[in-house]
Design goal:
The protein has 91 residues and is mainly alpha-helical. It has four helices and no strands. The mean pLDDT is 78.
Length: 91
């Protein structure tokens, strides 16, 4: 299922043009796409599939927490590096 946010991100990556979510929605409507509501969100779908397959939820939660921690740590370090970097044109 494609959302307007995903479309805006894809357009940005592919064409190096930024679209807001509302702009992506208007663009999709002009191209003939209609808005649709997903039956289940991605996370709920994954949870349902895992439930059906007997996933070890404790391990899944631990892995998710590790991933979120690593992402937050990466963002924090990236911000520190960007703050420390000299700005172009500023001497």
């Amino acid at each position: 299922m494609w959302t307007a946010a995903r479309v805006a991100t894809l357009i940005g990556r592919k064409f190096h043009v930024s679209y807001s979510i509302s702009g992506a929605t208007r663009l999709m409507r002009r191209l003939g796409f209609t808005p649709q509501m997903p039956a289940l969100t991605d996370m709920r779908q994954a949870l349902w599939e895992g439930f059906r397959q007997g996933v070890d939820w404790a391990a899944h939660r631990r892995a998710l927490a590790r991933t979120e921690f690593q992402r937050d740590l990466f963002v924090q370090k990236a911000r520190e590096v960007l703050r420390a970097a000299p700005r172009p044109g500023a001497e």
